Amino acid sequence: MTAAAGRTGRPPLTEERKAETRLEIARVAVALFVAQGVAATTGEQIGRAVGISARTVWRYFPSKEACVRPLFAAGIEAVADGLRSWRPGRSLGDALGSAVLDSSLVHSPDQATMSALIRLTRSEPGLRAEWLQSYDEAEPVFARALAERAGLPADDLRPAIQAAALNGALRAAAEYHVWRVADETADAATAEAEFRATLRSALAVVAAGLS
């Protein structure tokens, strides 16, 4: 009998299932943070709500604040995928606008959860740190996507600057929308339309550059 044939216990989780679990933990964590605050939320509570142990939660994330990372990561990949799919002959402003506005970032079923999370980043230092860290990690991803699309070296200055401008616009637009514009009672369609309008305005400023 081989070692594989003699193995007992649970089969190993697939990468897809691990990603689903991480996202479920993130959603539950945000719901608990909104309901009772970050300080009052424990790993045990998060695990119990998901149906796993606190030990499993800590295997996925180093802290309760870090539990929200999958929600941020999904947005980064959506924008990067959009940047890689530019059609030839379009201006930078048009391309960036389509990359963001037509991506799953805007149409995500987690949009309401993301709005609640971004609201919390204004008053919860630990979540604020995770939010800013996600943009720090996004910038080189966007720069590589921009360089790949333009046929430029990965270390070229131009896509690095473009990525920094886009990154800043995305963060400013998201915060402006959630902190100043968004109505928590608005229906999903209205919230999406408002978010799209805010993003479009931000990207127009990026396209126009500095005067």
Describe this structure in words.
The protein has 211 residues and is mainly α. It has helices at residues 15-36, 43-50, 54-60, 69-84, 92-101, 104-107, 111-120, 125-150, 157-181, 188-208. Helix 9 runs antiparallel to helix 10. The chain is globular, with a radius of gyration of 19 Å. The model has no long low-confidence stretch (mean pLDDT 85).
Search tags:
211 residues, mainly alpha, Arc Repressor Mutant, subunit A, Tetracycline Repressor, domain 2, 71% helix
How are the elements arranged and paired?
Layout: H1 15-36, H2 43-50, H3 54-60, H4 69-84, H5 92-101, H6 104-107, H7 111-120, H8 125-150, H9 157-181, H10 188-208
Helix pairs in contact: 1-2, 1-7, 2-3, 4-5, 4-8, 5-10, 7-9, 8-9, 9-10
Keywords: DNA-binding, Transcription, Transcription regulation
Pfam families: TetR_C_14 (PF17754), TetR_N (PF00440)
Protein name: TetR family transcriptional regulator
CATH structural architecture of the largest domain: Orthogonal Bundle
**Which strand-content bin applies to the residues?**
under 5%
Radius of gyration, whole Å: 19 Å
Mean of all residue-level pLDDT scores? 85
How many domains? The number is 2
Overall CATH class of the largest domain: Mainly Alpha
Specify the helix fraction band. Answer: over 70%
Silhouette: globular
How many distinct beta strands?
A: 0
What letter string, H or E per element, gives the SSE order?
HHHHHHHHHH
CATH superfamily of the largest domain: Tetracycline Repressor, domain 2
Low-confidence stretches: none
Q: Major beta sheet, specifics? A: none
Count of alpha and pi helical runs: 10
CATH topology of the largest domain: Tetracycline Repressor, domain 2
Which structural category do the helix and sheet elements fall into?
mainly alpha
What is the distance, rounded to the nearest whole angstrom, between the alpha carbons of the first and last residues?
74 Å
